[in-house]
Write the structure tokens for this entry.
Amino acid sequence: MDDILTINTGSSSIKFSLYRDERPLLKGEISAIGGESRVKILSGDGSILLDDGADIRGFREGAAFIAGWLKDRGYSRIRAVGYRIVHGGVRYREHCPLTEELISYLKAISCLAPEHLPQAVEVMEEFSSHLPDVQAVACFDTAFHRDLPEESRVYAIPFGFYREGIMRYGFHGLSYEYVTEELSREGIPLDRVIIAHLGHGASMAAIRDGRCVDTTMGFTPTAGLVMTTRCGDMDPGVVLHLLREKGLSVDDLNRLLNHRSGLLGVSGRTDDVRKLLAMEGEDERAALAIRVFCHSARRFIGALTAVLGGLSTLVFTAGIGENSPQIRERVLEGLGFLGIRLDRERNLANERVISTGESMVRVMVMGTDEECMIARHTSRIIKERR
Ligand code: ADP
């Protein structure tokens, strides 16, 4: 009956949850850290415990706020803290107890995820000072992809770079783990499965016999699918051209490719699929942005199906994947040749299975829960240590 705290540090937010026996007692988020920050905390049944502006200027301050709030509210049975870490580098391929050595390694590889790792380290250090006797576990988004075969992992640049760690890592691993566990619990074979995590960031994973054999994100989460504000795969020559001819700095390029591209970049309007769908009738660029997004997703489904040598189950998950029947239908347009038959009514109703009885491929819609996955790993790892 001891509680597990999960911490998910984003580029400007800290999400946290407190779990007891795999059930959330509460879920909270500090958003817009360093800007017009807000704190929202909900109880497990969804009632609002706190929803207010807060002047939180940095990540350490955010972590201190959460630790203080939990203490004031009498949550004194925290047995372990599980952290989501976006990148484990070449050294950390498995979720593991948090150690001094791991923190030093994360500091050393911060350049691999400069918008996430430095903040995550600050948050872990701050929590450790508030909860010194509580065990801590690190859960990596890259761990799910640990078995990628070399032909998928290696970039075709001089091999010395691979030895330095420049390779495909893949991300969204905690989401993929949650979905694959749910599929297993339902007895659905993990023989040839594609999971499409379509959220603010978007990626796909190809799973053969329970193992990830290919994924769309790469060395960083910028690669692969066209996303809400990230460009996805693109000729690296474009980057060279922008550097050479437009005189962009590295920071400018980062902003351009990660924050001003994707749906936002093409439409010039918004990165929100719902708004783009509402305006596509009158706005050609909004319509084009959606076509580019869906084309990109469709082409990766084709590519990953080829890698798997067929497809038995396709799962849509995350904000867009779970909630947008229009996007799912358009992504699947023309994929009848793979044996996919969409049931339009089930799709419109966001049902769990949205393919027809005749479909050769089971197409599903599932919620994902990265926090729950962190809690499960954390609980398992501290039990193993006992
Ligand atoms: P992340 O965890 O990557 O921040 P989420 O999985 O929460 O993202 O997904 C957020 C995305 O989902 C946003 O781009 C949002 O516009 C989109 N989204 C949420 N609900 C819907 C909906 N009903 N239709 C289309 N897109 C939606």
Observations:
- The pocket of adenosine-5'-diphosphate is lined by residues 199-201, 228, 272-274, 318-320, 323-324 (CB under 6 Å).
